[in-house]
Amino acid sequence: MQVVFEVSKENKNKVENIIKKDDLISRQSIVVRAFEDKFYFLIDGNEEAIGRARDILKDIAKEAENKEEIIRKIKEEEEQALLGFGSILG
């Protein structure tokens, strides 16, 4: 299960701290990226952790309306990074 939270610059550090301190959420796969003056937190994990994240972040982050687009951009960046790394090791 995946969820993407959209976070303002002002709340980025707050969200990171909340996620790091929560034992359940911090054990999930978490990717943070900046696009167009906002930060996006992609959390890929189990249903319980996603539910907890939704609950504790509801006042400082909102779920991204363009979730699929953000996930696609993150995957594209990761693929480009792998291609670049592969050419270094060539």
Q: What does the model show?
A:
The model has no long low-confidence stretch (mean pLDDT 93). The chain starts with a strand and ends with a helix. The protein is an alpha+beta fold. It has one domain (2-89): Alpha-Beta Plaits (2-Layer Sandwich), CATH 3.30.70. It has four helices and four strands; from the N terminus they run E-H-H-E-E-H-E-H. The chain has helices at 12-21, 23-26, 47-57, 67-89, and strands at residues 2-7, 29-35, 38-44, 62-63. It has a four-stranded antiparallel β-sheet, with helices on both faces.
Characteristic key phrases:
4-stranded antiparallel sheet, alpha+beta, Alpha-Beta Plaits, 24% strand, 90 residues, globular
CATH class: Alpha Beta
The number of helical segments is 4
Low-confidence stretches: none
First-to-last CA distance: 35 Å
Q: Into which percentage range does the β-strand content fall?
A: 15-25%
Strand order of the largest sheet: 2-3-1-4
- CATH architecture descriptor text: 2-Layer Sandwich
